[in-house]
Design goal:
Layout lengths: L1 H4 E7 L2 E7 L3 E4 H5 L4 H7 L7 E4 L2 E6 L4 E4 L9 H7 L5 H8 L8 E3 L5 H4 L3 E3 L5 E3 L5 E5 H9 L14 H5 L3 E4 L7 E4 L2 E5 L8 E7 L2 E5 L22 H15 L5 E3 L8 E2 L1 E3 L5 E3 L2
Parallel strand pairs: 6-7, 7-10, 10-11, 15-16
Antiparallel strand pairs: 1-2, 2-5, 3-4, 5-6, 8-9, 12-13, 13-14, 14-15, 16-17, 18-19
This protein binds zinc ion.
């Protein structure tokens, strides 16, 4: 069981990385691959009889030696019952922490790349009496101010993706810091851990950069959700601005390949991390 709950482990310079999971979940394959025909994407990612594919909910715990940093917090336990059924959401992140021997109280920093519910669901926990409490009582949480504002607008296109109980209680109790990193360069959160705008999926989505010992890992979040999405045109139906996504994927790959960044994939249950290379036809692919 703990093999399923701990998706990977790596060292990066002085940093120790553990990949935890809130469990696999199911999304419509067509939505995950946008305009790409199923005849192409199903060769990489098989679909079930309901056309759903298996995705991961990967949380990274980074131990820098000074800080314990959590990147993303899965789907959580606050989804309406109907949606939980559609996605087959498992709510495993607390067990995953337990399996790895990491206590929520140890966590100093939580970073959300954006506020779609499958990225910040365990920021807070709904208790049996219905009350909402911070899952990481001693942590400072960092999110982009624009994501909070966008979520509060509850727009027709993506209102369902934003569940305010994942962030409003933390803003109200002072644990959440709203940040606005400058475009094109990083903003340091703690030494060796920074965020950088990679817009397109949402207008203010941030990647998380980990730097130690001259090496870099990057949690590129929903700009490239799985290793099957490395082709710059294999976008998701969910992406708000596809043309910006293409430009930003090129920008990312233009550094991640030559500099051999360790790429951490947010929704790849089976390949949560890896290095990217150019394949025989010049297309980016995971190194074997
Ligand atoms: Zn998203």
């Amino acid at each position: 069981m703990s093999d399923d709950l701990i998706r990977g482990h790596a060292t990066l310079g002085d940093f120790d990385l553990t990949i935890l999971t809130d469990g696999p979940y199911l999304l419509d394959g067509g939505a995950m691959f946008g305009v790409v025909p199923k005849t192409l994407w199903e060769k990489r990612t098989p679909a079930n009889e309901r056309n759903q594919i298996v995705l991961g909910t990967n949380t990274i715990v980074v131990r820098t030696g000074k800080h314990t940093v959590v990147i993303e917090t899965g789907i959580g336990n606050k989804l309406p019952e109907k949606l939980r059924g559609i996605f087959d959401a498992r709510q495993l992140l607390p067990q995953s922490f337990q399996a790895a021997g990491i206590k929520p109280e140890e966590v100093d920093v939580v970073i959300n790349t954006h506020l779609h519910f499958d990225h910040c669901g365990w920021n807070t926990t709904r208790k049996e009496d219905g009350s909402i409490v911070p899952t990481f009582p001693n942590a400072r949480y960092f999110v982009h101010r624009g994501e909070v504002e966008h979520g509060h607008l509850q727009l027709e296109r993506d209102a369902v993706s934003y569940i305010s109980e994942n962030y409003d209680p933390l803003i109200e109790n002072g644990q959440m810091t709203l940040i606005e990193p400058p475009s094109g360069s990083g903003m340091e959160i703690v030494p060796g851990v920074s965020v950088e705008l990679y817009p397109g999926h949402t207008a203010q989505m941030m990647a998380v950069m980990l730097d130690s010992g001259g090496r870099r890992a990057c949690y590129i979040s929903d700009l490239i959700p799985t290793s099957a999405h490395l082709d710059v045109t294999w976008l998701m139906g969910y992406d708000l601005d596809p043309l910006t996504c293409i430009e930003q994927r090129k920008r990312f790959l233009g550094r991640a390949i030559p500099e051999q960044w360790l790429v951490l994939f947010t929704h790849d249950h089976h390949h949560p991390m890896g290095y990217v290379e150019l394949g025989a036809k010049g297309k980016p692919q995971l190194k074997g």
